[in-house]
Design brief:
Blueprint: H1 2-28, E1 36-40, E2 56-58, E3 64-71, E4 74-76, E5 80-82, E6 86-98, E7 107-113, E8 116-123, E9 132-137, E10 145-150, E11 157-166
Parallel strand pairs: 1-3, 2-5
Antiparallel strand pairs: 3-11, 4-10, 6-9, 6-11, 7-8, 7-10
């Protein structure tokens, strides 16, 4: 009977040791979390175009993730995006924070290079909690671009998040 108890105790210790070892092995691996750029009109970040020496996001390596906490007019991304001939700007979790008048379902997305406006597209029919996207094609991979989000200035404010990625 004693041998049986020792065997069970040894088996239990071995099982616990294996579970600790297997969980610590996965804890050593770094968990990759995407960086999310928070943009808001009341913050300094996002109220103007990125400076000429601002950092760039290489879209062939990773997407640019953003969160707009409040927009009532216009917001800019805080980095240049590069290395894509086709780019998709995804808008998700569209929310109306304050509703006063006029259109509540439209968002203009504009892409600029350092030389000026490249192209604009308007998303229409955005619904509460909904999502949509705009594709921009014909970009030069070696050119730096930035994105501007604009809504009608009628007193309404919105929040949304999303991603800019190479397609």
């Amino acid at each position: 009977m004693r041998k049986f108890k020792r065997f069970n105790l040894s088996l239990a210790v071995a099982t616990v040791a294996m579970s600790i070892f297997s969980s610590s092995a996965s804890a050593d691996e770094p968990e990759m979390q995407p960086e999310i750029h928070v943009l808001q009109e009341s913050l300094r970040r996002g109220t103007s175009a990125p400076s000429s020496n601002a950092s760039s996001q290489d879209l062939s390596v990773s997407s640019y993730n953003y969160q707009i906490q409040k927009i009532g007019a216009q917001l800019y991304i805080d980095k240049w995006v590069t290395n894509a001939t086709n780019m998709r700007v995804i808008v998700g979790n569209w929310h109306i924070l304050n509703s006063y008048a006029g259109d509540k379902d439209k968002l203009m997305i504009s892409v600029y290079s350092s030389a000026g406006l490249f192209y604009s597209k308007q998303l229409t029919g955005l619904k509460e909690g909904g999502s949509d996207y705009a594709d921009f094609t014909g970009l030069a991979p070696s050119t730096k671009y930035y994105v501007v989000f604009s809504v009608y200035t009628n007193g309404n404010t919105y929040s949304f998040n999303g991603q800019i990625k190479k397609v």
